[in-house]
Amino acid sequence: MKIIKIAYVGLVAIFFQFSSANLFAQEDVGLDEAYIEIKSKSLKDDFFMARYDFENDQIYIPIKGLFYFLEIYSVDVNLKRKTVQFQVDNEKYKVEIKSGKNFVIDDDIYVELKVLENDFKFKESNWSSQDLKLTLSPEFILPFEIREKGKVERLRLNEKKEDEEFNIIRPEKRILAPGLIKVNYSKIDLESKENQLNLEYGTQFLYGDLYLNYNLEPESSMKNYNLTYNDVYKKNDVILGEFYIKTPDF
Predict the structure, then answer these.
(1) pLDDT above 70 covers what percent of the chain?
(2) pTM for this one?
């Protein structure tokens, strides 16, 4: 019985020694921290933390850090199986890291650039060791592109809606129409017998917009009038008669 216990303790000690050796093998890989400039479409980070093998001039990119930079936060990295799952615009992706070197450091997987090209299907990756600049072009759509597309679509729909509303209230041009009459009556002093009575009339006449402003009291006279043809040439109007900046407020 004692022999079995000693053997069991010995196996546990060997297991922990092997695990510790494996752990240190993953962390102590001779890679230095390096802050680089990274770009992807319209996204940019001037201080992106990566790992760099200066001896072999090889850059290693953290998967979680990269996806957070791309604004993809629904990313799940399995350190043991070396798999990555993420979702963009209801589209789910699952990637198994198979090609190139990779290291597990600080609860993330650091991979060389060809892993991004081969396994993650990045169309392009340009690295400059002199400028410490990295440019990536993923094949999948990014969240900021979805937002921009939504803004453009909303603007297009708003413009279409405004045009439709404008077309609904635009009257059909006629030779003659009944029109609208507005009567304005005012009395400056209740004790005074002097009254002011004014008529405004607007209608369609000879395919244009006719406007008349006529004073009845205290004296009968035409105040102003005009006949307007809208959008005659390149959205320019032709106005026959008197023109005032103030428009009728029917």
Answers:
(1) 78
(2) 0.52
